[in-house]
């Protein structure tokens, strides 16, 4: 198995280092859905590399965000779909696509219309 699938011992060892740092650095809350975690379900909180490069682990944590399993999978599926891939493969070193559509952009005006 390859490091890309997270199945080798070296990958797990490297992951445990930055995971421990990220969990000490950030509150145990998913950065997307705001779900809060306790020690009992902490295994469901993952460290997402913003630039999708697992070798880019700055000491200040600027390339990490904590995401729950569901949001992490969703983030990687968005990237795969954007690149026209089938599955959750991510090309290391490439930046994730920037979302340009904001579905809530005119939410206030829609709410005001109904009042």
Automatic annotation (TrEMBL):
Residues 17-73 form the HNH nuclease domain. InterPro entries: HNH, HNH_nuc. Keywords: Hydrolase, Nuclease. It holds the Pfam family HNH. It comes from the Bacteria. Belongs to the HNH nuclease family. This is Putative HNH nuclease YajD.
